[in-house]
Amino acid sequence: MNPLKRWRWWAILALPILVIAANSIGPAGWREPVVKLLWLSWTALCVALAHSARKALFDYANGRQAWLKALEHPIGAGLAFLGLCVVAAVLVLAFTGFARAQGVPLPAQQLAPLVVQEIEQHWPALPRRSYVGALIEKETCRSITHPQCWSTTARLKTSREEGAGLGQITRTWRADGSPRFDALAETQALAPDALREWSWDNVYTRAELGVRGILVKLRDCHARIEALGVVEPMERLAMCDAAYNGGWGGLAQDRHLCALTAGCDPQRWFGHVEHHSNKSRTPWQGYGASAFDINRAHVRATVLLEPRRWRYAQWLGV
């Protein structure tokens, strides 16, 4: 029988592939399936793979014939058919486990309740909660097994710059040693009461204040972007991530440049603002990438469901 004429192949293979492909094409809200639907699609695809694997392993065993024999009640045929079912079930579990393997760092699992608590207290309307996990991973993890991954002691220090803690909050100095920029003080000014105890003396020890600082900074950015007319949550999330990495001024310049370009909509990041910037496109020495590439890669690494947000959905929410 032609497999294309059988409904089960369309139900467990073609439809899930279409859903997964739609999720991969772009980050617009209507293209991002609800997590359970996407899990269901992957699971259905795994069922198809398991069925194919079972057929390959037991090409001499005809399930249809065994089924027909089982209807005649012969014990041998019935047990053979039961054996095929057991093998298929094991393969489904194996494939599904592979599809769902996400490798959430142990420190992230330990801090997840704290992150959820901070979100509930300081920004319950956060559009994509899993983004916070992706952001912390991007900022602190050279790899998910690195000692500083999801650690409050994560630190990037040069003679002119220091990035500290879970959000890599930054301060810089001029050549003469005088302060040039202090993101901690800037963020603290946005919520003086909530961040009253936060300082450079405890930035490496107070995890809850580090997470709170991330939320306050992002919350302010979202409010400012929304006031400028960007209403789609994923577009705001992408723009604010670009601002988190490259500064509000950089985002404002990028949107302005987009507005001056025919066919570019400054209210949309994906396919529009993301392609326009005055940031240098010359690779930085020691980084192997330009300021533009680093900034855009940061958005792709944290805002899209893959590669990072997905693994934190079950811990923080979608």
Molecular structure report:
This protein has 318 residues and is mainly alpha-helical. The protein folds into two domains: 3-96, no CATH class; 106-313, Orthogonal Bundle (Lysozyme). Helix content is 57%, strand content 5%. The protein is built from twelve helices and four strands. It has helices at 7-25, 35-57, 63-71, 75-100, 106-122, 130-140, 183-188, 207-227, 233-246, 248-259, 291-302, 305-316; strands at 155-157, 161-164, 169-173, 179-182. Strands 1-2-3-4 form a four-stranded antiparallel β-sheet. Helix 5 (106-122) crosses helix 8. The chain is elongated. The two termini are 42 Å apart. The model is unreliable at 27-33 (pLDDT under 50).
Mean model confidence by pLDDT = 84
- Largest beta sheet: strand ordering: 1-2-3-4
One letter per element, helices H and strands E, the order comes to HHHHHHEEEEHHHHHH
Distance between the termini: 42 Å
Helix proportion of residues, in percent? 55-70%
Q: How would you sum up the global shape?
A: elongated
Report the structural category.
mainly alpha
What about the largest sheet?
4 strands, antiparallel
